[in-house]
Amino acid sequence: MRVVPPEFESQRVGATGYRVLGLDLDGVCADYTGGLRAFCMERTGLPASRFPEPRHYDLTRSGWPFSTTQQYLETHRAAVEAGLFRALRPVPGVVECLNELSAAQVHIRIVSHRLFLSGLHEQVVADTAAWLEQWGIPYMSLCFTGLKDSVDATLHVDDAPHMVESFRAVGGRVLVFDQPYNEHLAGPRLTSWIGATDEVLRLFEG
Amino acid sequence: MRVVPPEFESQRVGATGYRVLGLDLDGVCADYTGGLRAFCMERTGLPASRFPEPRHYDLTRSGWPFSTTQQYLETHRAAVEAGLFRALRPVPGVVECLNELSAAQVHIRIVSHRLFLSGLHEQVVADTAAWLEQWGIPYMSLCFTGLKDSVDATLHVDDAPHMVESFRAVGGRVLVFDQPYNEHLAGPRLTSWIGATDEVLRLFEG
């Protein structure tokens, strides 16, 4: 069994893991809002101003033209079927930062909730892997799960308020990735990936 | 946040999860040995007798014509590139049993180490999702990771001796899926998926 080096003992995860970064994709690494906005503008012909920067995590409460969750989910499904998860832009600086972290012995564990759509699992996982490959994002684990707080990491990065709360409810360390819809959450907080490598490495130390 | 029903409190995982079955694929759900044997026979022209039922987890120590780990890995890679993960046969009874477990409120979390091949991630994850779909295996989480013992579950099922040991080292409950190469491990042990639903549900209770 692999042995955890003594200098990383405080960063341990499970029997043999250490320096594990649990990394959300949408809203953290990938510009989901921008991608969905582009899809909606193309489909509806409405201007960008009808799809403002969301100040609430729930897009039916953020001024977007969705009156019900069902309507939002139908649009999300249509966008995914049209290849949304291959088309997203990376959040600025994330590719460089993750490559630097990986070089610093960080095990990058992608933890995403993207599999909530029935019938689209194969496309979602293939598009996700293709996107990570396309942008040269290094990763060693790829987990699709809604129960994120039971996938351990030394440090998680997430933007969704309910996810941050559930990680903290079980004693997990979470770095809140700064978005207008999570301003009410306590830090630590990451405002940008640009030049963030040292800051993230310091947080690994506890 | 989702609430754990009181009758499942002893089956809890994380803040909101319960009845989570952490399920390995190769050697547990999918007949990896049989699939690799068929590939090797086709490629080498050697008879099935040259690829005996492995009595050691390491195929270089089980009478297969691999003299080094490197040689085994090259063959594994060639088989995966040729579509091994779509072609595997399910282990008898697994499809029916997992459908029954899913109907009994079990959250099936696939936990596989298949991503150890560089450059093949997209194919591996797509082929895995396609295979699960093709055989009608219900699942709610799909995790590719080598650090399995930090992906929690109420009950794990695995066949690999080192994985069983690492789950137990961190206090996890593991059901050993019976294979000739894991006979030395202490139980509980699952000898077959056929008719196993009640047995698995009892083990969830602790």
Automatic annotation (TrEMBL), chains A, B:
Q: Which residues form the active site?
A: D24, D26
Recorded hits in Gene3D superfamilies, A to Z, give: HAD superfamily/HAD-like
Q: Name one GO biological process term.
A: pyrimidine deoxyribonucleotide catabolic process
Give the molecular function GO annotations. Answer: 5'-nucleotidase activity
Q: Which family does it belong to?
A: Belongs to the 5'(3')-deoxyribonucleotidase family.
Q: What is this protein called?
A: 5'-nucleotidase
Query: Which organism does this sequence originate in?
Result: Cellulomonas bogoriensis 69B4 = DSM 16987
